[in-house]
Amino acid sequence: MIALNLLLVDDEAVDLEWLRRRVASNPLLANCQVMTASSGFAALKLMEQKPIDILLTDIRMPIMSGMDFARKAKELAPRIHVVFISGHQDFAYAKEAIQMNAYGYLLKPVDDEELNSMLQELTSKIAQERAQDQALSETLSLVNQELLFRWLNEETSEQAEFHVHGFLGPMLEDGLTVALLEIDDLAWKMKELSEEEQRRLKSSMTDFIHGFAATHHLGTVVRSYDYHFILLVNENKERVAAPLQELIRAFSLRFSYTLTIGTGKPAAEPSQLRDSYRQAQAALSIKWIVGKNRVIEDAKEWVPKQPIAPNLEEKVDRMLKAMLDYDLVTIDDCLHELFGGENPLTGKNDIYDLIIRMTSKLHADLLQMNEHLYEILNWDAEQSSMLFQYETVQDIVSWLRRRFFELSELLYLKKQRQKRKLIDNITQYVEERLDTKITLNEVAAHFNFTPNYLGQLFKLETGILFSDYLNELRMKRACALLMDPALKIYEIAEQVGYKNIIYFNRQFKQTMAMSPGEYRKKQRI
Fold first, then answer.
1. pLDDT tens digits, one per residue of 249-258
2. Which of 20, 124, 130, 330 stands 20 to 30 A from 460 (CA)?
3. Cis amide leading into 310 (omega within 30)
4. C-beta atoms surrounding 521 within 10 Å
C-alpha cells in the first residue's frame, strides 16, 4: 500500500464528516492521510502547506464553487487527481468536469461500492505513475546526469549522442520543459560563513530542491554548476509556472534566500530539449532586468510596457553583425540611431527600457551562437548598476559604446584565433601528406567545407592561393631534398607528390628558373 494525501472538500459539515469516515475506513488507504476542508479557500491554503494526491470535492459550494476551486487546485498542483461529487445530476457539470480532465464524477448519495472502486483505481494509477517516475529517476544515474549536462552545453561524440538519446526517449514521450534554477545572491551572502557552514547550507538546499521535485512529481533534477540546477519538468508550458512558483515560495520559507527560475519551451524530441535549455538560459539571464525570486519565461517573450525605438530588432541585428566584423563605426552609428536619431528619447525610463530591450535581444542572439554576453564582458549585476548612476544619456551611451567596442574586439579576436587554428591545422594536414597527390577538394572534404569557401578563406587568411601555397611548399621540400646527393631526382619528385618526372621538372624550372639537376650542381659549387 502506498502513502497518499487525500483532501475532501464540502461546505456541508455532516456530508463532509460522513465522507471522511467512509474514506478513512477503506483498507486500501491505511497508510494515507485524509484531510478535510469546508471551503475552497481553506482547501487551497491547506494545499500550499502539503502536497495532495487525490481531491474529492463537492461542486455546489458558496462563493467559490467546487469547479472554480478545482481549477485553482490544478494550477497549484497540475498532477493532482480530481473527483467531483454532486447531488445534482446535471450534464453541464459532467461536461465541464470532462473538459477539466477530472478523474471521476460521483453522485450524492455516494454508493460505497462505487466510491471504493474509484479509490482503488486511483491508488493503482498513482502507484503506476510513481513507479514510472522512479524508473525515470533511476534512468538518470550520476553518470547519465553528467553526460546530459555536457550534451546540453557542448557538442558531443556520436556515441555520446546515441546514449543520451536512448535514455531521453522515454522521458520525452509526454513532453519535457527545461527549467533552470538559480539561488540568488548566494555567493556574496555566504562569504561570512565558514567552509563547513557553506558546505552544509549548499547540501541542505540541494536536498530540499530534489525533495520538492520528487514529492510534487515535478520532474527530474540534474546537476549543474554552483548555485544552479537543471529541472526537466514533465508538464507542458501552460502548467509549469504554478508549481515552479510554489517551489520558489517554499524555498524562501525554508531558507533566508530566494530562488529565480528561467524556463524554455516544451520539447518532444532531443533537439527541441537543447533548444528549451538555451531558451531557459536566455530567460534566466535577464534576471538582473526583470527581478529575482520569480519564474521568468522565455526571454524573447518579454517586452516593455510601452513600444519604444522603432525597428529595434533590425538595428540590433545590424549592430551584432558589425560586432562580429569588428566594424566599430557601424556599432557607433547603430547606437546613435537607437538613442539619438530623428526622435531622440528624453525620458529616463524610456532610456532604461531601450537598454533592457537592446541587451536582452543581443544576449539572446549571442546565446544561439553559444556565446554569453555577460560572461564575455564579465558583466555582472554590480556593473549593470553603474548604468543607473549616470545622469545624462551621453554618459550612458558612452559607457555602452566602450563595452560594445570591447565585446566586438573580444569576439573578433576569438574568431581570428579560430580561423588561425583552422589554417594551422590545414597546413599541418597538407605537410603530412605532401608525398600524395593532395588537392583542395580533398582538404575541403576532410575539414567539412566546400572547396570554394575553403579556398576563399585560405586566400583571405594567408594572402596566397591554396594552389600556389601547395606548389611553393612542394618546391621548398624538393630544394631541401636535392641537397642529399644519395637521392635520385625521380625519387625526390615522388616524395613531393609528383608521379610524372617530366611534369615535376617543368614545374621546378618554372618556379626556380632552372632544372632540378642545375639546382643541385649550383648548390655544390
1. 999 988 988 8
2. 330
3. no
4. 12
